Amino acid sequence: MFKRKQSTPERLIGRELLRNYGFMKAEDCEYNVKFAMDNPDCIIYGFAIGDSGSEKSKVVVDTAFSITAFDESHETFTLNAPYENGTMTSKGENNSKPGEVTSRINQQDHIKPQVFFPSIVTLKDPTEANFLYVFNNILRTRHYGAQTTRTGRVRNELIGVIFADGEIVSNLRWTQAIYDILQAEEKLNIRDPLDEDDVVNSAEKAMENLMAEEFIVHSDFVGEKFADLLQEVKSVIGNEEGLRQMLKKADNEAKEYAKLHIKGKAEDKGKAKTNSSKK
């Protein structure tokens, strides 16, 4: 799963919530067309509007890899566009020759059910509201990419949060560690899909082992520790009033940040040009 396929759906979920609760208007901030530059979506996930301004994303997502091999987790479907009679052979209509076979045939790779993609989302220098905003987006997102919207849903199963003063391991290294544990415990069977409980347990073990090798300061919330953290987060975003307050706090912080670091810079440049022209 390419990183763009992961971050974009989660970002759009957050934008939908901001509009629903009145913190953003569609006409003022249109994704990939016109950014308002002063809401949580723009400040956290970043934007670029040529010379008008830009902000680097604070959410870092990498390409995710399936635990099982490609030929075990994917299958190829053939797509076609038949004629009016339901066949692939023309009757001679619309400038086509009778008996001509259409060339409108294509193939796409689709992911089989119960395939796991270990993924790490890194949020740089977050406030509490920023953290809850991104956390909520991940929990709410169900569909990733055009293919999955037609063939099924993706469920995010969060297994932990790590607070650290630097970035942790990559998706590929974590996936390889999970695979090694499953293989050592003889829980990899080509004929049967992976068991979800086995994958979660192996993912937790792999992350604990990998973090033990790191040279950064970190506090790990995995397993039972994460269950308590997850309940605390749900108590905030699990009700309408708590969610509204979180969005309002994130919106206030975003507007203050934009005033100081984005729009403020643009205004300073404008003043500098005005002063120089007067001289």
Rg of Cα set: 24 Å
Strand order of the largest sheet: 1-2
Query: In total, how many beta strands?
Result: 8
Helix content: 40-55%
Whole-number mean pLDDT: 84
Shape: globular
Number of helices: 10
Report strand %. Answer: 5-15%
Task: Give a brief rundown of this model.
This protein has about 280 residues and is α+β, with helices and mostly antiparallel strands. About 45% of the residues lie in helices and about 10% in strands.
Q: What features would you describe in this structure?
A:
- The chain has ten helices and eight strands.
- Strand 1 (47-48) and strand 2 (54-55) form a beta hairpin.
- It is an alpha+beta fold.
- It has two domains: 3-68 and 118-272, no CATH class; 75-111, no CATH class.
Q: How are the SSEs placed, and which strands pair?
A:
Elements: H1 3-20, H2 40-45, E1 47-48, E2 54-55, E3 59-61, H3 70-73, E4 74-80, E5 105-111, E6 121-123, H4 128-140, H5 145-151, E7 160-164, H6 171-184, H7 196-211, E8 218-222, H8 224-237, H9 240-261, H10 263-278
Helix pairs in contact: 1-4, 4-9, 6-7
